[in-house]
Amino acid sequence: MTQTAIKDVPLLIDGQFVTSTSREGREVINPATQEVLARVPFATPEEVQRAVASAKAAFATWRKTPIGARARIFLRYQQLIREHMSELAALLTAEQGKTLADAEGDVFRGLEVVEHAAAIGNLQLGELANNVASGVDTYTLLQPLGVCAGITPFNFPAMIPLWMFPMAIACGNTFVLKPSEQDPLVTMRLAELALEAGVPPGVLNVVHGGPAVVDALCDHPDIKALSFVGSTRVGTHVYRRASEAGKRVQCMMGAKNHAVVMPDAPREQTLANLVGAAFGAAGQRCMAVSVVVLVGEANSWVPDLVAKARSLKVGAGHEHGTDVGPLISCQALDRVSGLIERGLSEGATLELDGRNIQVERYEKGNFVGPTLFSGVTTDMTLYREELFGPVLCVMHAATLDEAIALINANPNGNGVALFTRSGAAARRFQEDIDVGQVGINVPIPVPVPLFSFSGSRASKLGDLGPYGKQAVLFYTQTKTITTRWPDEQDVGSAGVVNTTITLK
Fold it and tell me: Which of the following is catalytic: 148, 286, 330, 393?
């Protein structure tokens, strides 16, 4: 039998998909089967330089392209994404492991940002103050910055790239994207569709790589802004290095998301929400609920929560009926299994053990089934570290105030949820909790693109979010212009125009 040759994932430079000359790289592996899908060459320094140079050259004309013309490209782009939704989801599932439903959700949440980018002109309006002084007007322009860059993680290979380059490009910038080297195939297909939609050569470029390419993007003097989503360790490095290079930087990083359950919460609805938020996408999302705080009598819910988690089906993402797919890699499997073992050794009670699960026909897959600990305390590794796997920690608080204090003491501030029927409890919770994104009976409170992703504290570095109104401010420079058109009365006796602005 002839073995099919493994293809290299191309780079996108100046509107052309090109094969890297690099000998360094890694394989893209199906996490359910260990099948090698492709090879990702890591871009050479010269190739990164070519991508940035292409973006810089394209900026000269793209920045002058009318807002309406840019918007029409994204109207076409969103239609192409809709037409290829099934293909994109299948590709994403093969390389990342998500269920097809999760994969479609990944693409769809990115599509919403593309739709928002198509209407972004309404957010690029400047301000005007007429006659701020005698005959003087002042107004502002929101002008594009130039070349921008984005570094995206493995867990949302469609959504997060679509958070970045459509917003930047719609604002008149050009872009260099570095997708995760673990699952770049769906990202490259999205880039191909962007070209088909009419994005001109050089306006969008894609390079692949590891730390060396990340550092090159942080350091390059022609890159004016950089957006990052990923781990706290890498995000802190990126923020520091890119900021020192004079760039605008936004980093969405690690999390420890809590869900607080009051005794009056609707039981079946809440249990379903908790299980979906904890174990969906195999727990590999920065907004996953990894801690449930049961308040007062709600502590009796533990057996019901275990039963609901036990009912989930573990399997390959493309298989019908799968609820929990594999982890992204063998290394991730080892890490999550090690954290479970650490939880046992530190004294937590293992209510449901998802280790060593066997999935028929997928014996080589990176599977961990839903896992649930009770009796977790704040000093345990399970609580202090971001788990990024299908592991849920259950804690108990006597009162709502005690639950709020527990959450506010955690350094992270990405998302939090409260389940209750009480409007008074909900109001107090949303006022007193120190977390950027709050859900009331909503387990994963990521806002739609009309707003902005607003993680806070240790979960975020930078002041502005990656989409919504905040993204327009991030990707544009405000220029203030003050004008005066003198008439004969402004000419003094010596024939000199009076240049002093006097407020009257």
Answer: 286
